[in-house]
């Protein structure tokens, strides 16, 4: 299970109500995916939330949750990191120009392709006029890397084996692609002046852009370190506890997680299965299986956190609850805090708050160590 996925879930245990962080640049797709914007009470919640009271799983014994130890390591922000962010911003504003030279990493190749598995093709293995930025990871690495060196007008073939965990239809199978290269383009990225910065970004100058990006990266590194510290502590609690986990509870959490993709698909005017195939290269069955370990972890967290809250007398007062409503209302632009309850139930909000209190208690009673 990827730590990042768990950290996203831990950051907002029950609700996904954390707003996109403000930045001088347009929010990235990743931030949008890790956030939920409350637009209206009709569409904001598309799933049946899983609450502690809903679970049939049991906590057999709670492990130690006080006096835990974990390292909090902040990743160093290098000049290369800063320059990579600057280059990314410049690329967003750069013009793509035709090049006669062979394609290199970072170039955009427009191709027609048809794939064959055991001599047979399908609609999922062919496309025309597809832009592929080599090294961007929009296609499989084996596919993109073999486009290095192609030139405009060239016909070529590439072959590789699909990963075992890829789309069920082709997973683990050998494939050969016939490719026609329509064009090879490169980003024209001349050196920027202060005027270029002001015209294309919200920064005031090259110096402001560089220092601001360095600060943003540092803040992100510190946040990652905090998240990793929190995850390591919680993982210790889960691993030292004993649970009786019921499949129905795990499936309920999986339902909650995959429902987000229903919204993504609808926003793109697609059926969910079609969306998953086109953008993720997985089936719904594969997506559910990818989430199974995380869902199991969530069941365990809910059980353990409520037991910690019970043992330590952690509760949510009416005053704290009203303060949370006001904070959420302010965050999402509601003039009346009670309108939040039309979007998310009081039970959901209190569920999040009680689990937050348990996490905070674990952290407050833990010790930071160096590796």
TrEMBL record:
It is found in: Cytoplasm. Residues 21-44 are annotated as: Disordered. Residues 1-18 form the signal peptide. Keywords: Cell cycle, Cell division, Chaperone, Isomerase, Rotamase, Signal. One of its GO terms (molecular function) is peptidyl-prolyl cis-trans isomerase activity. GO terms for cellular component: cytoplasm. GO terms for biological process: cell division; protein folding; protein transport. Its main location: cytoplasm. Pfam families: FKBP_C (PF00254), Trigger_C (PF05698). It catalyses: [protein]-peptidylproline (omega=180) = [protein]-peptidylproline (omega=0). Its EC number is 5.2.1.8. Residues 106-195 form the PPIase FKBP-type domain. Involved in protein export. Acts as a chaperone by maintaining the newly synthesized protein in an open conformation. Functions as a peptidyl-prolyl cis-trans isomerase. Belongs to the FKBP-type PPIase family. Tig subfamily. This is peptidylprolyl isomerase. It comes from Hominiventricola filiformis. The gene is tig.
């Amino acid at each position: 299970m990827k730590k990042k996925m768990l950290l996203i879930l831990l950051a907002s245990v029950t609700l996904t109500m954390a707003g996109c962080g403000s930045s001088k640049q347009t929010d990235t797709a990743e931030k949008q995916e890790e956030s939920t914007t409350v637009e209206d009470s009709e569409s904001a919640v598309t799933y049946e939330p899983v609450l502690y009271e809903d679970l049939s799983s049991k906590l057999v014994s709670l492990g130690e949750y006080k006096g835990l130890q974990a390292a909090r390591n902040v990743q160093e922000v290098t000049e290369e990191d800063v320059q990579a962010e600057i280059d990314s911003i410049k690329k967003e504003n750069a013009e793509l120009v035709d090049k006669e030279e062979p394609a290199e990493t970072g170039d955009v190749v427009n191709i027609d392709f048809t794939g064959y598995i055991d001599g047979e093709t399908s609609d999922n293995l062919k496309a025309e006029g597809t832009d592929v930025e080599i090294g961007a990871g929009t296609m499989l690495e084996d596919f993109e890397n073999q486009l290095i060196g192609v030139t405009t007008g060239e016909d070529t073939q590439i072959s590789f084996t699909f990963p075992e965990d890829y789309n069920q239809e082709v997973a683990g199978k050998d494939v050969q692609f016939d490719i026609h290269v329509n064009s090879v383009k490169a980003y024209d990225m001349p050196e920027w002046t202060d005027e270029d910065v002001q015209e294309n970004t919200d920064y005031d100058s090259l110096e402001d852009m560089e220092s601001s990006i360095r600060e943003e990266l540092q803040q992100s590194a510190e946040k990652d370190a905090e998240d990793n510290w929190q995850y390591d502590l919680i993982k210790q609690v889960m691993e030292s506890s004993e649970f009786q986990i019921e499949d129905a509870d795990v499936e309920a959490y999986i339902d909650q997680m995959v429902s987000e993709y229903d919204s993504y698909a609808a926003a793109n005017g697609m059926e969910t299965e079609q969306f998953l195939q086109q953008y993720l290269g997985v089936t719904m069955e594969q997506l559910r299986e990818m989430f199974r370990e995380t869902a199991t972890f969530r069941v365990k967290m809910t059980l353990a956190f409520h037991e910690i809250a019970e043992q330590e007398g952690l509760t949510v007062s009416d005053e704290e609850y009203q303060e949370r409503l006001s904070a959420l209302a302010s965050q999402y632009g509601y003039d009346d805090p009670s309108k939040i309850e039309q979007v998310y139930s009081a039970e959901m909000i209190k569920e999040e708050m009680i689990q937050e209190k348990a996490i905070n208690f674990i952290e407050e009673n833990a010790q930071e160590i160096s590796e």
